[in-house]
From TrEMBL, chain A:
It comes from the Bacteria. This is ATPase. It holds the Pfam family AHSA1. Residues 19-143 form the Activator of Hsp90 ATPase homologue 1/2-like C-terminal domain. InterPro entries: ASHA1/2-like_C, START-like_dom_sf. Belongs to the AHA1 family. Signal peptide: none annotated.
TrEMBL record, chain B:
Residues 14-136 form the Activator of Hsp90 ATPase homologue 1/2-like C-terminal domain. Belongs to the AHA1 family. InterPro entries: ASHA1/2-like_C, START-like_dom_sf. It comes from the Bacteria. It comes from Bradyrhizobium iriomotense. This is ATPase.
Length: 170, 154
């Protein structure tokens, strides 16, 4: 995989009153992610080339990828491939990078979603709607001990755009 | 070609009323907006102004005042380092979703050279992360971004 071909198409930055180690743990452990990520469990083998799975509450694998950069607690890149039939073939691989930096009393978390080809705003609307909800929940969890339930579903315009490309959506 | 714009979304566990107050009350903004105090009579067409230790920093005119759903104002940065920067527009949309409020901040009508876009892209996540912390925990965070000076936060 040639990293130079991947461009950030969605970036989200959030400051959290926490430590880099705790932010890393919250991003990479099922126990935490279930609380802020609509019940989804992040299951990661903590090593380069390890597997990266996001398991839906019904037990199915929503995302299956691998660990591409592993530098705890500062930088993590995974392939973030949603398991919908033909999706990866049509849209290419999605790379997600988390950068975690100390910023005074806070931690700056920057999420970049990168793709190796141009994609329409409709296709990207899923991530652009989802990341603020997921990472707002993560911040609340680390700062208050609990994450509010934020009801999220795939945006209609994304499902329509995927269908138009011949991708079967649930 | 359309002018650059910037959008930031955050979800805050609070009520639309409290969030509205946090956006329009100077004693509140001073706490999470790095010392920037807002003041206005809050009516469409009325002037508003941010001051920091009494010095004007940003000012403009109220465009939309629709409590507790939408607030919009024009944005004219008066700080010396922003000289020559044009007038842009900031819109806050508040949507209650159960126990949380979805806050969408849109900063548009930005200069075509992209400089203002770069400047404000660093500032909004700090301000809005701090706003969320203040409403959810009662405390703000001392944020010092890597390679960034605190007094630059707008």
């Amino acid at each position: 995989m040639n990293l130079d071909q991947f461009k950030p198409l969605t970036v989200y930055t959030i400051y959290i009153a926490s430590t880099p180690e705790k932010v890393w743990e919250a991003l990479t452990s099922a126990e935490f992610s279930r609380k802020y990520f609509s019940g989804f469990a992040v299951e990661m083998e903590p090593k380069l080339g390890g597997s990266f799975i996001v398991r839906a509450p019904d037990g199915s694998e929503h995302i299956r990828g691998e660990v591409f950069e592993h530098d705890p607690p500062n930088r993590l890149t995974v392939t973030w491939n949603v398991n919908w039939p033909d999706l990866v073939e049509k849209l290419g691989t999605t790379l997600v990078t988390y950068e975690i930096e100390q910023a005074g009393e806070a931690v700056r978390l920057t999420m970049s979603e990168r793709h190796d080809r141009p994609l329409s705003d409709d296709i990207l609307s899923g991530g652009r709607a989802g990341w603020p909800a997921i990472l707002s929940g993560l911040k609340s969890l680390l700062e208050t001990g609990k994450a509010p339930q934020i009801k999220m579903g795939p945006p209609a315009q994304m499902l329509a755009a995927l269908k138009a490309m011949g991708i079967r959506v649930p | 070609m359309s002018k650059p714009s910037y959008v930031y979304v955050t979800y805050i566990e609070t009520s639309a009323e409290k969030l509205w107050q946090a956006l329009t009350d100077g004693a509140f903004t001073e706490r999470y907006w790095f010392g920037h105090r807002i003041a206005s009579d809050w009516a469409p067409g009325a002037p508003y102004r941010f001051t920091n230790n009494g010095n004007p920093t940003v000012e403009g005119e109220v465009i939309t005042f629709d409590p507790t759903r939408r607030l919009a104002y024009s944005w004219h940065n008066r700080k010396p380092e922003a000289a020559g920067e044009g007038i842009s527009r900031v819109t806050f949309d508040l949507e209650p979703r159960g126990k949380v409020v979805k806050l969408t901040v849109t900063h548009d009508e930005l200069g075509e050279d992209g400089k203002t876009l770069r400047d404000i892209s660093g500032g909004w996540p700090m301000v809005l992360s701090n706003l969320k912390s203040l409403l959810e925990t009662g405390r703000t965070i001392e944020i010092v971004p890597p390679g960034y000076s605190k007094k630059d936060a707008a």
